Amino acid sequence: MLQRPLGSSSLTVSALGFGAGHIDVGDMTEREARVLLDGVLELGVTFIDTARGYGASEERLGRWMSPHREAVVLSTKVGYDVPGQEDWTAGAVREGVERALRVLQTDRIDVMFLHSCPVEVLQTGEVVEALLACRSAGKVLAAGYSGENVALSWAGESGLFDVLQTSVNIADQHSRRAVLPFARQRGIGVVAKRPLANAAWRYRERPIGVYGETYWQRLRHMNVQPQADDWVGTAIRFSAFTPGVSTAIVGTSSLSHLAHAAMAVDRGPLPLEEAHQWEDAFRPHEAEWSGEV
What we know:
CATH superfamily: NADP-dependent oxidoreductase domain
Helix content: 40-55%
Number of domains: 1
Radius of gyration: 18 Å
Pfam family, one: Aldo_ket_red
Strand content: 15-25%
Protein name: Aldo/keto reductase
Structural class: alpha/beta
CATH class: Alpha Beta
């Protein structure tokens, strides 16, 4: 698996990352979660992203983590849903970091993201300062912001964050055009989320109310097909090899699906002609198609 520096931080990450929300999926047992996580490492995937809001994901990762800690670059999110603390306050950040350390059974979080924190809150400084204080204390190695559009641009331009997480896929190229060139110039690491565009191409009819509905509509307007008739391979290669992207995270409960994505990354970037085809199909809509939160 291709490994890359995470911006100018001290961290190195796999070009394909794993989104760990699915290890809390419905009837997945503890043993099945462990088998999946073992398989993630066997594929050479070293970046694992989780969150407080992913049910039992952090807890299961914590129970699995101990013998694998030095092989994993671990990220999670903070700033909300902390008992006794108001969301998006310094207390929510400080207590959220302490809670994550306990639950994940680790002495540091490699990347801690403020997830979808409103730009007005970022600008007041209290929440960002609390995160940076945790970084100074060694509890967090890299300070990150996860979000889209105006708030993401502010975070990137502020000079305060080491890593950004944003949607980058064939149907969501806003950040690819508006933020990533700047991040690359500044040495900010970029974690690309939703590289498969929620696999919106699976649906023959518009999936009303489903998370990928917007992407389904966009793909219909773009009217482009993968040259190799491989939606997954095309999508992950487009995202993972976008200039400035450090890692593209795929969330799945299926090891075979992750292996498919890993094999696609092994093939390298899309041919330039095909990459330009997707860019050209998006360009007429770039003024109206903002980043999907």
